[in-house]
Amino acid sequence: MKKVDAIIKPFKLDDVREALSAVGISGMTATEVKGFGRQKGHTELYRGAEYVVDFLPKVKIEIVVNDDQLDQCIEAITNGARTGKIGDGKIFVTPVDRVVRIRTGEQDEAAV
Question: What gap in Å lies between CA 44 and CA 91, rounded to an integer?
Fold first, then answer.
């Protein structure tokens, strides 16, 4: 099993969710986060004062998938999140050693 963490632009969340549903992935966790990479933030004007916004709003999606679903998952996120502009985001994949469903005690693939 693998854990997929994706950082995307907030307005692309629905597109990514729909793309994942289309390939049979229904469970995910989405969290509002802030960060920056190459975008480096931007300058804004507020009440006549100029200031730099270093951290930009993003959404972090966390999904645990079986190994055979990984490539479809990555492709769905990539297609759903891509705008072609800087700041589209990143996808990180890490191994998952164990999963336990708290309610039933099911483990690993049965718990995903």
Answer: 29
CB neighbours of residue 28 within 10 Å:
19
CB under 8 Å to 27, separation ≥6 — which residues?
63, 64, 112
Please write the tens of the pLDDT for every residue from 13-26. Answer: 999 999 999 999 98
SS3 content of the chain, % helix, strand, coil (to 5): 30, 40, 35
Q: Which residues in 65-81 are b (16+ Cβ under 10 Å) and which e?
A: beeebeebbbebbbebb
If residue 43 lies in a helix (H) or strand (E), which one and from where to where?
Answer: strand 42-46
The helix/strand/coil state of 80 is helix
Q: Is 87 helix (H, G, I), strand (E, B) or coil?
A: coil
What pLDDT does residue 75 have?
97
Listed as ranges, residues in the chain with pLDDT below 70 are 39-46, 50-51, 53
